[in-house]
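Weekly modeling sync, notes
Attendees: S.R. (lead), two postdocs, one rotation student

Agenda item 3: backlog of single-chain predictions. S.R. asked that every request posted to the team notebook include the full sequence so nobody has to chase files. The rotation student volunteered to paste the first one in as an example of the format we agreed on. Action items at the bottom.

Example entry:
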Amino acid sequence: IGGNFWIVRNAVLEEMEAFTALEKVGGLLYITENILPHIDSLAQLREVGSHVYMSWSPGLDNLDGFSGLEEIGGDLWINNLDDLTSVQGLENVERVDGFVRFSKLPKVPQIACLEKLTSIGGELRIDNNPTLTHFDGLANVTSVGGHIYLEFNDVLEDVPGMAGIVSATGGVFIEGNAALKNIDGLGNLES
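Predicted structure, as returned to the notebook:
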């Protein structure tokens, strides 16, 4: 697909088997307001030229369908997925040119993915995740091209997955994380 790929507001759409051979989306991948129980048919997808937005899809409990995804030319936005229990499936992403945001994921206790990612082109935002206790997902990221936000994650205890970050172009905002015991994971920031 050379341009955008939108799957939006399809009240009874339960599968996307027609796209099992899809390897590239040249523009935006936008999946929102569907009742898809899974996105497994996207497992061959390797590259998205612009943004990846996943939101408001009741019943979706995993991102395993993104297991082949390696490159995102814009933002990675995973938010408002009430039934999502894991963000696994993003382990092979090597490049995100825009921001990375995990937000409003009420059943995700741990973010441990994106192990192959070495830099984030824009901001990093982890916010409003009420059951998130640990953030281990960015061990190999050394730079963030914008702000770092850790906000309103009620039970977040630590952020060891950020220990590799040595530079952030923007500011660092840590707010409203009632259970945060230490921020040693940000201890390697130099600039």
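Discussion: group reviewed the output briefly. The CA atoms of residues 46 and 69 lie 4 Å apart.
Action items: rotation student to repeat for the remaining queue; S.R. to check formatting next week.
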